[in-house]
Amino acid sequence: MKLLLVLFLGGLGSVAMADDQGTRTAPMTVEPYRYSQNLDIAHVVAVTPVPNVCEVVPMQLTYDDSNGERHIMEYRIVGNGCANN
Questions:
Q1: 68 confidence band (pLDDT: 50, 70, 90)
Q2: Angle at the Cα of 26 (from 15 to 18), degrees rounded to 5?
Q3: What is the pLDDT of residues 3-46, one digit of tens each?
Q4: In the predicted structure, residue 1 carries a pLDDT above the cut 60
Q5: With contact defined as beta carbons under 8 Å apart, do 45 and 64 qualify?
Q6: pLDDT value of position 27
Q7: Lowest CB count within 10 Å: 6, 32, 47, 71, which one?
Q8: How many CA atoms lie within 13 A of 70 on its CB side?
Q9: Are 53 and 81 in contact (CB under 8 A)?
Q10: Is residue 6 part of a domain?
Q11: Which domain holds residue 34?
Q12: What is the sign of the dihedral through the CA atoms of 81, 72, 68 and 5?
């Protein structure tokens, strides 16, 4: 179910919410998504846009958890370029 949530957010992709970046100075590490991982997403900050290719591509979801900590999670999704011809 949570994987579907992440994939749905990835589908909405190109929308990024403005947020105050001035208080964050440490470089962020990208966390890979693991199946059946318990996600604590309180606020979605940004989602990378889904490319127009017909292959599996990496996506990144930047979010704040319920403690206010920022995370970047990477997952894979099929691009928007596939069509049944």
A1: very high
A2: 20
A3: 545 554 555 443 344 444 455 566 789 999 998 889 999 999 99
A4: no
A5: yes
A6: 76
A7: 32
A8: 14
A9: yes
A10: yes
A11: 2-16+28-78
A12: positive
What is the number of structural domains in the chain? Answer: 1
Report the b/e string of 22-58 with b at 16+ CB within 10 A.
Answer: eeeeeeeeeeeeeeeeeeebeebbbbbebeeeeeebe
Single-letter residue type at 25: T
Q: Is residue 83 part of a domain?
A: no
Residue 78 has pLDDT above 50, yes or no: yes
By CB atoms closer than 10 A (0-12, 13-18, 19+), residue 9 is middle
Cβ atoms of 4 and 39 within 8 Å: the answer is no
Domain assignment present for residue 23? The answer is no
pLDDT at 83: 76
Cα(65)–Cα(37) distance, integer angstroms: 14
Q: What pTM, to 2 d.p., does this model score?
A: 0.63
In this structure, is residue 85 part of a structural domain? no
